[in-house]
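Sample 1 of the test manifest.
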Amino acid sequence: MLKFPLHKSSIFIRYMASALNPVETSIIKKLTETFNPVYLDVVNESFKHNVPKGSETHFKVVVVSDKFSGKRLIDRHRDVNNILSKELEGSVHALSIQAKTPDQWEKSGQTIANTPPCLGGSKK
Amino acid sequence: MNSSRLIVFRLNPLYQQSYRILARRLTTRNLESLKIENQSYFPRKNCYRLLSVYTPLFSQNEQTNSMPISERIEKMVKNKKIVIFMKGVPDQPMCGFSNAVVQVLRMHGVEDYDSHNVLEDEELRQGIKDFSDWPTIPQVYFEGDFIGGCDILLQMHQSGDLVDELEKLGIKSALVK
């Protein structure tokens, strides 16, 4: 049983606020267009790291789509990386990806592991 | 000792940590012979520490530094069982994702691997991203093959694939009885 794709409504709200978080909006748009996901979550986790407020440098992305079936983990991640290559050349330098097929998503109980805590980065 | 050069650092003693970090950084540069002398000097008002480092001239580093970065990286990963490119060093990672990789390997009892600190070397930091065609750090290589980053390693660990991969390398995971 698949849940209602909540991301569509959240995209509407995010487009309204696209001036404030352009990178996040662009990530959501690109992933939705390419993978047509059953579930999508894009979280800006820059606040957890040693960067200025309002940065868009660290993102966590959860994509659940049947386009991933039959692909190895690394190929799925490479696909996501290629779609977001422009953002990754820009401000984003950390991208945590969870790429699952709908079956795997159901089996895992639709939960994600927590991001490891920041340890300072290149600034001491 | 053969011809050597002396580098002297003066460190504020308030920053005790910086002495340890500096010593660790110098040793991770694979300098062939390294002698660190630590002397404290107390003039009237200020007190500071002298850290003198003797390094050999024309060390291996200087020869490899003239190679293009892709060749250097090729040399780093070729014929090595496990190589990781991370921020910081295994004793002191400077990034939560790099730390996760170190901890996962540690859980499997794997402590003997090559690790390269990209924060120390800007050329390496960009070079490894081009070499692997992978935009983020940390990066894990098993026998010259790129495996993935933190997410992939964690998922391999959770699914049990990591134990199998280590076995292929001839390493018995500590989590296997």
